[in-house]
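Quick one: GMC family oxidoreductase from Salipaludibacillus neizhouensis, structure tokens please.
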Amino acid sequence: MATTLDKVEVVTVGVGWTGGIIAAELAKQGVQVVGLERGKARSTEDFQHIHDEYRYAIRYELMQDLSRETITFRNHRDERALPMRQLGSFLLGEGLGGAGVHWNGQTYRFLPYDLQIKTMTEEKYGKNKLGEDYILQDWGISYEELEPYFYKFEQTAGISGEDNKNSAPRENDYPTPPMKETPITKRFKDAAKNLKLSPYHMPSGNLSENYENPDGQTINQCQYCGFCERFGCEYGAKSSPNVTVIPTAEKTGKFELRTHANVTEVIYEGGKATGVKYIDLQTGEEFIQPADIVVLTSYVMNNVRLLLNSGIGRPYDPESRTGVIGKNYCYQILPGATGFFEEEKFNTYMGAGSLGASVDDYNGDNFDHSNLDFIHGGVIAITQTGKRPINNNTAPNDTPNWGKEFKSQSIKYYHRNLAVGVQGASIPHRNNYLSLDPEYEDIFGYPLLRLTYDYTEQDRNLHNYLTEKSAEIMKEMGASRVEPREISDHYSIVPYQTTHNTGGVIMGGDPETSAVNNYSQMWDVENLFVVGASAFAHNGGYNPTGTVGALAYRAAEGILKYREESGQLVKIVNDRKHA
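--- reply ---
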């Protein structure tokens, strides 16, 4: 029997970047907020020990325990989905701060083209550029409207960077200067300039200098130790929710954090969310937390799963193309090229998660697609994230997997290889979606989330084009041997690729085709907000975190408006739609 607790004004499900931003912004305005986090508490002090690559990068200390909850996967809907037993293609995080603890810190803004992709594509290339099986949708908000929220997130996180003519336009400079130039980033920039491209230093959540943000929180200067991705920062120099928004929320006295609180259901009665049900993972007790406003601020997969398991919203049906929950799941396409050098050696071991250089000449619609068989593109970059000893052994593709030649090539190229990579946009397809699995359940008896996903012709065409461009840059960098990346026949969930999953609770201006409005408020349930990359109508050519942060600040503003205006936010947004 669940114990019903005292009602609170707002409850958030998940306390990472989005949950932390919502809590901080609301608590600063005197709103009582309870944050439920199913993982354990952690802080900078927890990482102040010898770097342990095996513990964090190999054994995934900060990631979800798949023996308790996982997802099932299939390429096509006529296949049976099977559970993901080991973390592979993407890493599902867990614990206070979420992925904001173990991210690399690369913090881009999605382009104006991204937010109005349907309108802009059709105006320039017509309505049949891709075909009817692709689902292009505008986000229901323009870049000009979202720009102030991008900057607010960058101020909170102290992002280090420099402007670039092909990136999203900015009203203000980055809060801190770009990170250090290295021989590797300079070589990439020189090669890009020789090819008439416009390189710039990657925007970074690993800060170039000590910084105090507008809330009075201090983020320290990066030490370039090379242990960012999959690790927490022992210096407090990688911007994370744990050193920014969570302390800001806590110091107000209006925020209560509960860890080990695994939410299993959003309680839905009379057309409104009345609270959530959760299990205390330490005691096994079940609780009901009533609330005036419920905010889902967990990872993409869990936002979708909670709605489906709670019977909220209309599940997407790929056959009829109706419904919205689970629709427009997108991943990311990863073109690129590896270069091998005969004489020169590179120190790739010092670095940081966002130490790198990028070009946006082939991102969004920055280049003409009239005679191309795909839309969008991706950011091309070289990163110096810090190669670690266990997972680093790059050799040419034709090298045997064992024996004398394997050892010889491994030693020869240990310091003589570089890679240029691309984060390619992912365009939604009717057959790529999220749903509940009819067979498999988690440890508590709730259905697992099922992922149905495979590469499309759009993906392959984009991959091949941008791989060729990456190889051109690598050749210009002086590599004696260049190996372009290949895309497999089908997507596989086994090898790690990227954790940039998006979609499933998408944002838009029409309740028939989207799940939330541009304040991340559900069309069907006015006091339920769903915040995060689950709102992306497609996945762009960048890391998602900067855009997630902007949407979270926009959502916090919307929640305050809804609270202050006695539930009139739905009317306000609908009036804007029909204006």
